Amino acid sequence: MGPVATYPAIEDLDLVLDRLGGTGEARRRQLRWVRGELQRALDQGALPVTARRSLRRMLEEPALGAYVRLAESGALRQRIVAGGTPPTTATSNAARLQCLDLLRETVGLPVLHLGSGAMPLREAADASVLTALRRQLDQYLGGPMSPGLTRLTALLAVELDTAARSGELAALRTTHLAPEGTEVYIERRPQHGTGQAADEPGEWITTSALTRAALERWLPVRHSLVQRSHGTSKLWVSLRWNHTGVSEEETPTIRPPGMPLEENGLISSYRRGRQRYTGLRSLLPPKLERLRRAVEAAHQQHATT
Prior knowledge:
Layout: H1 8-19, H2 25-43, H3 50-53, H4 55-58, H5 61-73, H6 90-106, H7 127-141, H8 147-162, H9 166-170, E1 183-186, E2 203-206, H10 209-226, E3 242-246, E4 252-255, H11 263-276, H12 278-281, H13 288-303
Helix pairs in contact: 1-2, 2-6, 5-6, 7-8, 7-10, 8-10, 8-13
């Protein structure tokens, strides 16, 4: 294991912990535990860059929001538990929030009363987590990738550009891509009939360099898979043999690889990928819809700045 990275914010936190008085040993152990989680969050690039340089910035709401969500998911655990990194317990979560309140008060920031149950931090991932997700996807594209990781990387890249709902993603076809993947056409399908009218046309969205590279990796894999089946123009297709269930004659309907991936299958592939690829587990929320809302919020914030 290489040397542990040091950050001015962590160095200042160590000084605060060394000088902190009036706390029992149990609380001090909890504070050291929080210190270790914050160090690992910085190592993963999951907090804003400014959080590395300043303890106050590290204890402000944007950084704390990203940290708390990662920590509660289990992604910042130091040790493997039952073969994995399960979410932390409610007791641990409450202790973590109380420690953050104490640290904020110590450095002169107003107490947020995070441990009172009225946590003001947003549920969806913030911009710093989305930036870390883009960085992780870019790292995947720099090396060998399985078909499953290739498809998921392209799917997530498109989502980061478009904030598309799962049904909108599932509806994508290769004809919805501009040459060289420079744009993608999204036909909006608002839930419960709200928002965009059903007969309103969709929109062409300019893709990022990340999405273009991800599609460049996925499309040849997709083409190979589609050749084994009856052919489809759907962008997302299955990777392996499966079946549609049991018919009235109790005979499974076998489906070869390369068949269109329906909305439920797309959501399932997101969940499986989140669990399978450790680099994504700490960055993706459990549900695709939560990721979509985070991307949508980030786009709206960017548009107003």
